[in-house]
Amino acid sequence: MSTDWHVVIGLEVHAQLTTESKLFSRAATRYGARPNEQSSYVDCALPGTLPVLNREAVKQAIRFGIATHSTIQERISFDRKNYFYPDLPKGYQITQHYRPILIGGQIDIDTDEGAKRIHIHHSHLEEDAGKSNHEYSPTATGIDLNRAGMPLLEIVSEPEMRSPKEAVAYIKALHKLIVFLEICDGNMQEGSMRVDVNISLRKSEDAPFGTKVEIKNINSFKFVEKALNYEIMRQADILESGGAIVQETRLFNESTGQTEYMRGKEDAHDYRYHKDPDIPYIDIDEDTIEQIRQNMPESPQEKQKRYSDDLKLSDYDARVISHDKDYATLFDTVINEDCCQAKTLANWILGPISEQSNKSSTTFHDCPITIKQLAKLLSMLEHNKISNNNAKVIFEKMWSNGDNPEDIIKSEGLEEINDIEKITAIIDDVLHANPKQVEQFLNGNHKLIGFFVGQVMKQGQGKVNPKVVNDILKTALDKRK
Amino acid sequence: MHQYSIQEIADALKKKSMSSEEVTRHFINRIQLHDPTINAVTHLCHEESIKQAKAIDAMRAQDANSLGELAGIPLLVKDNFCTTGMPTTCASKALAGFTSPYDATIISNCKKAGMVILGKCNMDEFAMGGSNENSAYGVVKNPWNNMRVPGGSSGGSAAAIAARLSPAATGSDTGGSIRQPAGFCGITGIKPSYGVISRYGMIAFASSLDQAGPMAASAEDCAILLSSMASHDPTNDMTSVKQASYDYHKQLNKHIKGLKIGLPKQYFSDFGDKRYETCMQDAINELKALGASFIEIDLPDVKHCISAYYTIAPCEASSNLARFDGNIYGHRCEQSSTIETMYARSRSQGFGEEVKRRIVMGTYALSSGYDNDYYQKAQNIRNLIRHDFDEAWQHVDVVMAPTAPSTAFKLNQFQDDPTKMYQQDVYTIPVNLAELPALSMPIGFVDKLPVGLQLIGRKWDEATILNCAHQYQLRTDWHRATPENYR
User: Fold this and answer.
1) Does the pLDDT of residue A418 top 70, yes or no?
2) What gap in Å lies between CA A308 and CA A318, rounded to an integer?
3) B323 vs A89, A273, A276: nearest CB
4) Between A74 and A361, whose confidence is greater?
5) Is residue A453 over pLDDT 80?
6) How confident is the model at residue B365 (pLDDT cuts 50, 70, 90)?
7) ipTM at complex level
C-alpha cells in the first residue's frame, strides 16, 4: 500500500447513560441481570403500552451539551425508526431523527502535532435494542430484552479525523469526558460505549471525500485502531488496483483483525422515520439548562488548574491526577480530610496507592481501606509519627486486611522513635563505636554523614525519624569539633 | 331493569332494592339470550362478573359509604382495551389467545369505581372500519335491523347498548368509531378531547388520534361514566392531560339559554334523504326552544379531512402494528426457516384484509422520499382544520354536525369499495384531527333506523356538549327508544 492516501474518519459513539431506569420505561438498567429480568411490559412491547420519557436522560444529555459547547435545542422530538428484528419488539426504535437535543459542539484531542479540535455534528438520545442469544440452543435463538430501551446518547462527529491515531485520541478524550460528567460509566467491555466508524480515502487533503465505508459496533480503543488500519489497507489496495470502493457496512472481526462485509447500500432499510405520536415535543427551558450548568461536575481541565494553582501540585502531578477519574475522586475526597499536604497526598496516589492497585489489579475504591483509615495513615506520616518506609509497609498490610493503621503499628512495633533522648543515646553509641569515621568527618569528609545516619537507623530498627536523626547528629558531631 | 338509566340502577343499588348480583345476572342472561342474534359480545365473564358483583354487594353491606356511584354497575369492554383475566384480541387472529398481564388505565379506573366487567365486545379488527364487518369474530348486526351494520369500529359496544345487554360500554374513537356506531344504533357516545382518558392499555391504532370514551343510552350516563374513566395518567401516558374537573355529572344542570351553536354550511347543505334532514331540523328546533341560538359557520378545510386522515392514520398504524410479529405474543405461523418468513407468514395469516390494506398504505406513505408528500402534508391539513375550528370558537360554543351521511347502511354495502366506505367518516374525522370532544346522540328515526347528531365542543369542554345533550334528552325520548325485540 502506498502512503499517499489521505484518510478521512468520522465517528458515531453510542454512550450508555447512567440513569437508574430505562429511557422510556421504569425497568432498571443495572448490568449483569439474568436474561429478561429487567424487561418491563413496555420493553417487551406488550399491546397498549406507551413510552414515558426519562427526564434524567435529557438532563445528562444537556450536561454533555454544556461541556462540549453544543447548542441545546429549545424543542426536541422523539421519532420512530422502523425495522423488523427479534431484539426490537416494538418493530421500531425511538430515536431523535428530526430534532436532536444537541447540535454542534467540540472536543479537543491531543495529537502528535499538538492539540486539535474535533467538531461534533450533533448528539441525540435513543433507546438501545435487546440482544439475540444463540448460546442456549442450537436450533433456537434466545431474546434478552434487558438491554432493550437502555438510554443511549449517540454522539456523531464531523469527518475531521485524519488518521486512526486521531480517531483513537478522539474516542479517548470523549471517553474521559463522559466518565467525568458521570453520564456514562465508560465500561467498554460491558458495552457502555460502542463505536461506529466511517472511513474513506482520497488523493489529497483538498480532494472531495471518497466513498465511505461504515464499520459498526467496535468496543475497544485498540480494535478501533486495528479496524481502521486494516480498512485503510483494504481500501487502498482496491483503489490502487483500479477498483472502486462500494458504500457498505462492515463488521470488525476481533479474532482475525479484519473487517468483514455485513450489508451493502442496497440492503439498507427504509426506516420510514416519523415523529413518535406517543411523545409530544419536549421543550427545554433556560432555567433547566442553567440549573444543570450550576451543578456541572468539574472538568478535568478545571481540576488541573485548581490542583496546580490552589493546591500547588507540580504540573505533572496536577495533570495526571486530574485526568484520571479514580485518582481525582480519591484526591478530592482525601484532601477534604485535611490530613496532609496536597503534595504528600499526590505522591501517595501516584506512588504506593497506584503501585498497590496495579499489583492487586483492584482500584483503591475496591480495596478494604476506608478513606478515614488512609487519612489517618497520611496524617501520622505528616506528623512524623512513622517513617515513609514504614508507612508503606503499614499501607500494604491495610490493603490486604483492612486493619486500622494504629493497630498495625502496635502489633508490628512500628512506632517511630521521636524521643530525642533515646535518639541522642543511639547517636552517642554510634559515634563512640566509630571513632575513625568521626575523625575523618571532622577533617572534612562530610559525605560520611550518610554512613552515620545509616548506622543510627540500623540500630533504631528503622523506627527513628531520619529528619530528627539528621538534626541531632549534626549537633553531636559539631560538639566534637 | 335493562331500561333503567345508570343513575336509576345506582339509586336502586343504594336503596338495596336490587343487588349488584341481580343486576349482573340480569344482563348476563340478556347477553346469553340476545347476543347469538347480534354477535356483539366476543367474551363473556360469566362467573367472574358474578363474583365481582357479590364482592360489591358484600362491601355495600359492610360500608355503603365507601362505594362510588358506579359500584356494581355492569360494563362491557371493547376488545382493544387490555384486561387481565380474559382475552384481549382487537378482534384479530393476530392476537388470538392473548391475555394481557395488566389492565388498561381506563379499565383499572372503572374497576376502582366498582364497575363489574361483563365481558368484551366485538369490533372492527384493530379498530379499522366503520361497519364492524372486519372482525375475526364475524360481523355484528344492528339490533334495529339485522340486515344493517351497527357501524364501527365500536360496533359491538354500540349494538350491545342498543339491545340493552349492558348499561355501559367502553368504546374507542380514532376517526368516528364511538360516534358513528352510536348514531347507527340510536345510543349516546362521547369521544372526549384527545388526552382526557389515558391511552395506556388501549391497543394503539393511530396514536395521535385514538381516544377512548364511554357509550351508553344517554348523555347523563356518559357523563357519569366519563367522570370515572378519565384521569391524569402521566406515569403511563405522555399525552394524558390534567383536567380542571373530572366531575362531568355535576356539570349537567345548566340551562342552555344563550348557548351559541354553529351550523357548518359544509355540513347542512345536501342530504340524499329529505326525511334525514327533517330530523336534523327537528333537533335544531328543540334546542332553539331550550334557548340556544344557531349561527352558520364556515369550516373551509374540512373537505380535505378524508385524505388527511387516511394518510395519518395508516402511517401511524403501519408502525404501531409492527409489534404483532408473532415473536413474543399473538399468532405465530407454523415452522418457518428464516425470521423473515416467520414475520411475513405470521402477519399475513394474522391480519385481515382491511388491516393489511392500511398497513400497506401507511408503509408506502412513510417510505423514504414520500414522507413530505404524504405524512407531512397531511399534518399541514390537520393544522388547517384545527385552525378552522379555532376560528369557529370565536363565534360559537358548540358546533353541530350530522354523525354520518345516512342511517345504518346495509351489510356488505361498501365491503368491495373501501374508498366509499372511507367517505362515510366525513363528519366524524375532523373532530379527531382537531383533537376536540364530540358526542353523538339519537334524534329520531328514518325507516325505523336511528338518526344520530353530533355536538362538537371546544377542546377540554366536554361539559358543555354533555350538558347540551342532556338538556335535549330531558325534553325528548329518542334515547329511551329500544329496538322491538330487545325491550
Assistant:
1) no
2) 6
3) A89
4) A74
5) yes
6) very high
7) 0.96
Q: Which residues in chain A (35-64) have CB-CB distances under 8 A to chain B?
A: 41, 44-53
Residues of A in contact with B322 (CB under 8 A): 82, 84, 90-92
Q: Where are the alpha helices (DSSP H) in B326-441?
A: 339-350, 353-366, 377-392, 418-423, 429-433
Q: Is B310 exposed, middle or buried (0-12, 13-18, 19+ CB in 10 A)?
A: buried
Average pLDDT over residues B204-213: 98
DSSP for A56-99? HHHHHHHHHHHHTTPEEPSEE--EEEE---TT-TTSEEEE-SSS
Q: Cβ–Cβ of B104/A48 closer than 8 Å?
A: yes
B233-276 pLDDT, tens digit each? 999 999 999 999 999 999 998 899 999 999 999 888 777 789 99
- Which residue in A44, A89, A280 is closest to B238 by CB distance? A280
- Backbone phi, psi, residue A282, to 5°: -110, 125
Q: How many Å apart are CA B46 and CA A296, to the nearest integer?
A: 60
- CATH number assigned to the domain with residue range A420-479, chosen from the 4 options 1.10.10.410, 1.10.300.10, 3.50.50.60, 2.60.120.10: 1.10.10.410
Contact call for A47 and B90, based on CB within 8 A: yes
Residues with Cβ within 8 Å of A381's Cβ and at least 6 positions away in sequence, in order, are: A340, A344, A388, A391
Kindly list the residues from chain A whose CB atom is less than 8 angstroms away from the CB atom of residue B204: 48, 50, 278
A115-152 pLDDT per residue, tens: 899 999 999 999 999 999 888 888 888 999 999 999 99
Closest listed residue to residue B409, CA positions, set B129, B123, B130? B130
Sign of CA dihedral B50, B55, B60, B62: positive
Q: In this complex, which of A48, A52, A274 lies closest to B315 when CB atoms are compared?
A: A274
pLDDT band at A3 (very low <50, low <70, confident <90, very high): low
Which chain A residues touch B319 with a CB distance below 8 Å? Answer: 80, 82, 91-92, 272, 274
Q: How far is A361 from chain B (nearest CA, A)?
A: 43
- Averaged over A52-65, what is the pLDDT? 98
Catalytic residue among B19, B92, B100, B153: B153
Q: Which chain B residues have a beta carbon less than 8 Å from that of A276? A: 207
Whether chain B has a CB inside 8 Å of the CB on A140: the answer is no
Where is average pLDDT lowest: A187-196, A421-430, B45-54, B204-213?
A: A421-430
Q: Is B153 annotated in the active site?
A: yes
Chain B residue with the nearest C-alpha to that of A274: B366
Smallest Cβ–Cβ distance between B88 and the set A47, A80, A278 belongs to A47
Q: What whole-number distance in Å separates Cα of residue A374 and Cα of residue A383?
A: 14
CB-neighbour burial class of residue B466 (10 A; exposed 0-12, middle 13-18, buried 19+): buried
- Give the residue from B98, B320, B346 with the most A CB atoms within 10 Å of its CB, the best one to mutate: B320
State the Cα–Cα distance between residues B188 and B182, nearest whole angstrom. Answer: 6
Q: Predicted confidence band at A469 (pLDDT cuts at 50, 70, 90)?
A: confident
CATH 3.40.50.300 for the B6-259+397-486 domain, yes or no? no
A50/B98 touch (CB, cutoff 8 Å), yes or no? no
The dihedral formed by the CA atoms of B268, B274, B279 and B282, expressed in degrees to the nearest 10 = 80
Pure H helices in A323-414: 325-335, 342-348, 354-360, 371-382, 388-401, 405-412
Domain residue ranges of chain A, discontinuous segments joined by +: 6-287, 298-412, 420-479
* Chain A residue with the nearest C-alpha to that of B317: A277
